[in-house]
Write a structure and sequence with these properties.
Strand 20, helix 17 and strand 21 form a beta-alpha-beta unit. The longest helix is centred in the middle third of the chain and has 19 residues. The chain is elongated and about 110 Å long. It has about 675 residues and is an alpha/beta fold. The protein has 22 helices and 30 strands. The chain has an eight-stranded parallel β-barrel, surrounded by six helices. Strands 18-19-20-21-22-23-24-30 form an eight-stranded parallel barrel. It folds into three domains: about 260 residues, Alpha-Beta Barrel (TIM Barrel), CATH 3.20.20; about 90 residues; about 170 residues, Alpha-Beta Barrel (TIM Barrel).
Amino acid sequence: MSRPEILAPAGSADALTAALRCGADAVYLGGQTLNARRGADNFDDDALERAAYLCHSYGAKLYLTLNTLTTDAETDAVCRALRTAVRAGADALIVQDIGVARLARECCDIPLHASTQTSVQTAAGVRMLKEAGFSRVVVPRELRRGELREIRENTDLEIEMFVHGALCMCVSGQCLMSAVFGGRSGNRGLCAQPCRLPFSVPGGTGHDLSLKDLSLLPHLCELREMGIDSFKIEGRMKRPEYVAAAVTACRKTLDGAEDNEILDALRRVFSRSGFTDGYYTNKMGVSMFGTRQKEDVTAAAGVLQRLQTLYADVPARFPVRFSFVCRAGKPAELTAAAGAHRVCVRGPIPEAAQNRALDRAAVEKQLQKCGGTLFYPETVETQIDGGLFLGASALNALRRDALDELRDRIAKRPAHTFTDVPTAYSAHTAGRPRLYARFADISQIPPDLSTDKIILPLYLGAQTIADHAAAVEVPTGLFGREKEVRDVLAECRARGVREAVCSTLDALAAAKACGLSPILGLGSNLCNTNALHEARALGAVEALLSPELPLAAARALGAQIPRGVFAYGRLPLMLTRNCPQRNGKTCAECGRTGALTDRMGVTFPIECRSGCAQILNSRPVYLADKQREIAGVDFLLLYFTVEDARQCADVLRAFADEAPPADAFTRGMAFRGVE
């Protein structure tokens, strides 16, 4: 079985050098914009071309991250980034936004890798990614061993997974906390990491949203046997020594040469109270939580210099076969071959020997001096006429020229193409928005309810949903529950339910398989016209726009699919598989509801009735009195979570009357947007 790819982060030129010299098979890095680590040094256009050349000269691949949500105002910037990727010779693009993926398919032929930000958790979701043009998926960090195996056995897409590095509390692509708290969007590469601040549950750790770093190094051989294609290391914001340690540890583990010294150095250079494999081994709970302690910081000082030696020198990577020919009256020739690559260079015409004639030993001595290059001599063949002389400087120049040209051949960029496409869109026209109401429980539904559509969660059961003529809301987290969810969806369809609200491509695939019309909802992260076109192409009949998109931008979107905005409710700030409540009490004790408290004493409700925990905002978005400023959308979503029936009725009346808020509220990102 071939060794999986070791994929290293490169947030700077020094980190790139460290990754390649320590044996990474591929690196991922970002340009100056449109990538999920905008705080890293990153690479401008010229630096990106140099980086691609360097990667390819090592026989490694370069994956460019275009893994943020984008708006229509950034469409031209996306096209420029795609053109730059083609020119530089990137081997693949890592993409979150399905609109960016659609544009990339139209503009160029670079392979697409689905970012873990796409939140795809099931084999059916992976197959839908293939339908959308992706060749690889980066699976969630939260998968258990059996869930990962099931995906691997039921899809032919390449699978990339994180095996070491920072572990977010939230499922990637489902976090709004940084955006809501300070306007810095994690979906747009500027996460402020508020989850690392003190948040607590009763009896918890006091940092109940801060997980230890992930490390699956002890499981790499098992993952290789499972057929995982790429082992990814997180860390584009981390220093080169960390990259060197992580790549070296992965390489040695896969080579069967486990090195406790390098593993200890890796822990010391960066960790948060150690590492965890709790998701993969299904050992979740308080042991997975940790923070960056003073001793974690000071531990790095003792290993940095030692780790720098790992990438101090250019490694001899490629064996080269030399063939030297020296004939009287003809320029000397040196042929160099490495693998399938072969070059021939010419030097000066040899002179007649005055003293010692050129011989095989003299030629071998100079050709074997490959230090400081990626090559080492494997064989040297010579054909030398007698009585000739060629100086050492001429032989050295031949060797340098041959190895430089050979490196250029190895580093030849992929032959991708770019085509300009129209990027101007006609705005969608819509009448007065319809009102959709989502209830967490039927006890919230007012007796005199008047609304255009009711949405009820799947956990309420098919009969209840059908009795209320509602659309069924599919859970956002389907980890290991795909069959269970499909069974309920099939029953919903049999009882007359016609629509399913879906937050992910997993849910969309499940709904379509059961004959339900999908409505893309919260978590689908739709921010641009191309994303709406792609949503329609994938089978959605309606779509909720991302709450990160300001109303002014929503008004200008094109595409014909009906779309709506989040107009009332507590936004889900996080979807997490490791419920923070379990740090203080068992599931039986908490009753699947609770609250998280921040350092200012503000509380955030926790709901845990759909397989994962949802952390809700402390106050609801409220736009009832701003309806005249909402245009270009077809429906308004009222998202009821912890309200009782009276509160729900009050909100519904407020929207009918366009009344101002009576209680604490937020406008969310409807007017300010996000960075």
